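Board notes (copied after class):
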Amino acid sequence: MPVFKAGTRLTAAVLNGAIGLTAIKSADTGRASTTTLAADPDLTVAVLANTAYLVRISMLYKSGTTNTGDLKIGFSVPTGATFAGGFLCISNPLGVAIFPVPTASTVMVSYGNGTSNPLWCEVTANLVVSTTAGNFTLTWAQNTSSGTATTLMAGSSLQAVAH
């Protein structure tokens, strides 16, 4: 829980940020034949200016066979914000890979293992918002264009807790 300083104006946004912001996918989103990162329609939260957040993104996904589609992710952050942490994913050949220090401009890839074999990957990071509030959003696409959709599944989540 953050420490509030004397004179801090306690608005709903400030209090909501203090207890944590959460977005959970309620339905699957599929993307086929595209490698252009686009905002996920569900995994976005409004973050406050001059606030640091601990961010955890847990993604359930499925795509075509290894090297067919796969999952490429990135982030959209408010102007001036910094974002750095770690990324745990499925690698090729299939195994677990840990990639340190993704940033807001890093594009990361987690590989698929067939449309009937859901997989998981996770990002844990610190988001430090400068003087401009805005949205923090997961962006994603296929890593390799494929007619077989890559699907970010219901239950995937994004959490940001002010610290």
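Comment from the instructor: The chain has a mean pLDDT of 88. Helices lie at 12-19.
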